[in-house]
Amino acid sequence: MIGPWWRIGWRNLGRNRRRTLIAAAGLALGYFAVVVMVGLMAGLTAEMIENGTGLLTGQLQIHALDYRPDRSIYRTIGGDDGTDVARLLREVITDTAVAGAAPRVYAGGLVSSGEATTAGILMGVDPNREPGVSRILRSVVRGAVPANGQSQILIGTEMARQLDADVGDTVIVVAPAADGSMGNDLFTVSGVFRSGMPELDGSYVFVPIGSLQQLIALSPGRVHEIAASTTDPWLAPIAAGRLAAEFSTSGLTLEVEPWTRLRPEMLDYARLVEAWDYFVIGIVFAIAVFGVANTMLMATFERRREVAVMLALGATPAKIVLSILSEALALGVISLIAGVAITLPILVWWHTAPPDLSWLYGDFTMFGALIRPVLRVEYKPAVAVLTGVALLLTALIAALYPAARAARMLPADTLSGI
Amino acid sequence: MTARINLMIRLALRNLLRQVRRSILTALALIIGGALLMFSVSLGDGTHEDWIESAVRMGSGHIALQAPGFYQSRKIDDRLSEQARRAAEEALRSLEVARHVVNAVPRLTTDGLASSPNGARPAQIMGVDPVAEVGYSILDDKLAEGRYLESDDRLAAYVGTGLAEALQLRVGARLVVTAQDSDGEIAGQLVRVVGIFKSGVPEIDQAVIHIPLTTAGSWLGVGDDITTLAVLLDSSYRMSEVTSVLRRLLAGPIGDGELALLGWREAMPELDAAVKVDNLGNYMFQGVTFGIIALAIVNTILMAVLHRRREFGLLQAMGLSPRETGALVLIEGVILTALSGLVGIGLGIFVTWLFWRNGLDISFTWDADWSFSGVVLDPIIVPMFRLSRIAQGLVFILFIGAIASLYPAYRAARIDVAEAMKFDR
User: Fold this and answer.
1) Are B326 and B235 contained in the same domain?
2) Domain region containing B152
3) What gap in Å lies between CA A370 and CA B269, rounded to an integer?
4) Are residues B405 and B341 in the same domain?
5) What is the per-residue pLDDT across B178-195, written as a single tens digit (0 to 9) for each?
6) Residues B245, B352: one domain?
7) Cα(A69)–Cα(A172) distance, rounded to whole angstroms?
């Protein structure tokens, strides 16, 4: 199987081990860099999608058909009569991709404490169900989550500062109600949350869903939204399709939207990042071609007398090309093994314990999603394989010119020392 | 000593010219690397400048002059004192500052609630001078419907599409803005929508309302007072320079704790982080490409050194010290990298300028509005060339060249003269 020309190629790598090592290091570095950079970009995308959907919105949302985009408080699921919320929730949760579902009610209003007043978005949530959909109730920094049936609210750190209110204080909440009146009531601050998103921390107020329905004169069967989380964000569109089909057969006119339709720009971004992966592979290996070509050119130049002897003894130019290409392939394989050996442990390490970069920069937002200052990497097996193929191709392409030059050599001239 | 260095430089140059193909092959990788470096750096800087420019024009400027507590409280109580405002306007007119200042506009900003018969939303209500604002803000260009505020408007409001949708507002519709006035009372003000804008940034489209400054002043009971003097500079890089000049000019006329200068980095930490992350990514990419290039250079120079063992042996036999032999290799490496670095940087700038000076249109990659950290992405990237970047690039390339030549130089210095002279191919 392994003919003499392959063996010649392999042995030539050992002729100058240091040179081989440096060339292999270049290719291995290229492999490492591509896989890690692609992993980092995927990490950024995953961070954006997870935080963008997992912090509050959820991966799926179900509304009455005419609720979005106006978000009028009258447009509840099932119209003015409402619906059997518990049954709807059960129906949503039975879908295989859905991990959790929770009902929500929205209203806009003013929150006052003492002299200070601030405007807020009042969101009625079910404290028992909401943690299965979003992380917002888990980001409480002081106090506790409001309990069902109590006149308690959870406010953000920024609003707490503006109102100069803290856990245990009483605040007045005023909101336009569905019956045309102004609903107002006293609430106790049960806790303060910090999400890191300025809009949330400054203007969102979480109220037990029953208490908010009472405040804005909605009956318990009237909710604006059912939000659901899926086991994997990328399963959301399929799950949404399934749920929509199910609802239409059971006669409910509802809009089921996955995050990909709620936030199309996030999907666009994720797609662009994938296109970028190939660009990165292209640039890095295009540069690496020069390094390898240079090394191979010198290696063949050094052996020109030897090649001339082989040609003089009857080796065909094709065999010379074969030996040089096999040398390049062997170099590629060595680099690939080294590259994988370096990349894998670092990738696993960074994936399990992402390095903290908060010394360099703070939180920032992308498409309204919070990005933490950590170096998060995701595994992309397909790209790792593709990069390996690109590495081997790079080594072969880089060897083409040196091989062609060596094969076209004139043995007589070379041997006579010209 | 100088004669010796002269000799070595001449020797190094000759060696490079003797092996033109080898030199060119080594240089080529660096030239392409240098060109790529300049291309990505100038496009990156251009993109960032564009982000900053659009963010500061929609927000509170490169530098915001405010009462010290305002950034935290966003309350009407923390407004600029008459004296502080006069001193600030005086300082902005001084020659040192004025040449970098493009525009400065007064703002009376407060957080409040906007309500219509269809609901209520929290809003950021800005009292603006309609005439000055046109030359400052880009929101007036983002008009979707109706018109921007005009100088004789009284009860007019310019709102974002997000807010207009949420409250079901059309041009001509009425809305009530509610906020705490200077006495601590909740005050409402009826205004009529004259125009609707769409900036593409959800945070802005859902929250910002522009109303005439005079209307805001009487509604909140503050008269002619303002909360912020927003200053727009000719370039974001002037921020720290202008800030320190302003600090010096203002130290005399007004006391401590009356005025705070807030740069865009502090006012918009998210944008600052986004710029840093983007730069970090770019630096990482450059680091990797140059790492690969450096390894290629090490290999080429090392091979050349091993090839020239006889030559180095001869030089040492004729009196060159091992250290000087090493230095010769180092000088060769540095000359080669300096030349190819210059060519690469020149090429990079030239190509970028030639093809993309009017902007690289990347709008084909996305169709929706892309926004992050409070800025909307412009699909046309206009490169920005800066002298400091060219200097940085050159120093970086020289550094890579010098590092890559160190090991071959060390090998050349360690050549055993007698062995090297014996060596014959």
Assistant:
1) no
2) 60-267
3) 13
4) yes
5) 888 888 888 899 999 999
6) no
7) 29
Does residue A97 sit in helix, strand or coil?
Answer: coil
What residues of chain B lie within 8 A of the CB of A371, using their CB? 277
CB contact under 8 A, B365 and A275: yes
- Asked if A19 lies within 8 A of B32 by C-beta distance, the reply is no
Secondary structure E strands in B54-100: 63-66
pLDDT digits (tens, 9 = 90+) for A97-151: 899 999 999 998 889 988 888 888 999 999 999 999 998 898 899 999 999 888 9
Q: Could you tell me if B176 and B276 lie in one domain?
A: no
**Cis peptide bond prior to A69, omega within 30° of 0:** yes
Q: Which residue of B lies nearest to A357 if distances are taken between CA atoms? A: B277
What three-state secondary structure class fits B110?
Answer: strand
> CB-hemisphere CA count at 13 Å for A257?
18
Given B223, B248, B267, the domain boundary residue is B267
Other CB atoms within 10 A of residue B56 CB: 28
Q: How many angstroms separate the Cα of B203 from the Cα of each of A63, A368, B158? A: 23, 8, 15
Residue among B113, B118, B295 whose CB faces A72 most closely: B118
Structure tokens at B266: 């502090």
Nearest in space to A330 (alpha carbons), one of A9, A15, A16: A9
B284-to-A33, B278, B342, B400 alpha-carbon distances in Å: 9, 10, 22, 15
**How far, in Å, CA of B32 to CA of B55, rounded?**
34
Which residues in B56-166 belong to E strands, given as ranges?
63-66, 101-116, 119-128, 143-146, 156-160
Global model pTM greater than 0.80? no
Q: Is B74 on the interface with A (CB under 8 A)?
A: yes
Please state, as a whole number, how many other Cβ atoms lie within 10 Å of the Cβ of residue B141: 11
Give which of A61, A180, A73 is closest to B168, Cα–Cα: A73
pLDDT at B369: 62
**Which DSSP letter does residue B100 get?**
T
Would the CB atoms of B178 and A119 count as touching at under 8 Å?
Answer: yes
Domain boundary among B267, B294, B319: B267
Strands A116-125 and A204-208: parallel
